Amino acid sequence: MTLAMYARRKHWPLEAVTVTLRHSKIHAADCEACETKDARIDQIERDIELTGVLTEDQRARLLDIANKCPVHRTLTSEIHIQTRLITA
């Protein structure tokens, strides 16, 4: 959604965006970019397909925008989950 809205605002010929995700667990020691080194961590691989007659600069900018979208930022930030049990 974020990419489509951005392209529309810029009047770029983006026809479709297809995102494919793969999730796996990896050993943290195998992840050079990870802070944690002593456990298994979640790894998400993301493929983005942009359909339309776009320049390489437009494609690069859309990738940059994809890395700043709210969902991406949420998934890459520290997450704290607070759970409460509600009884009737």
Short key terms for the protein model shown above:
single chain, 88 residues, alpha+beta, two-stranded antiparallel sheet, 3 helices, 2 strands, 31% helix
Description:
Helix 1 packs across helix 2. The chain has 88 residues and is of the alpha+beta class. The relative contact order is 0.21. The protein has a two-stranded antiparallel sheet with strand order 1-2. The chain is extended. It contains 3 helices and 2 strands. The model has no long low-confidence stretch (mean pLDDT 89). The chain has one domain.
Give a summary of the structure in a few sentences.
With 88 residues, the protein is α+β, with helices and mostly antiparallel strands.
Low-confidence segments, given as residue ranges, are none
Which structural class should the secondary elements be placed in? Answer: alpha+beta
**Beta-strand fraction estimate:** 25-35%
Q: Numbering strands along the chain, what is their spatial order in the largest sheet? A: 1-2
Q: Overall pLDDT, averaged?
A: 89
- What is the makeup of the main sheet? 2 strands, antiparallel
Q: How far from one another are the termini?
A: 38 Å
Shape: extended
The tally of strands reads: 2
Strand/helix succession: HEEHH
Total domains: 1
Helix content: 25-40%
Task: Record the SSE blueprint.
Blueprint: H1 2-10, E1 14-27, E2 40-52, H2 56-66, H3 70-76
Antiparallel strand pairs: 1-2
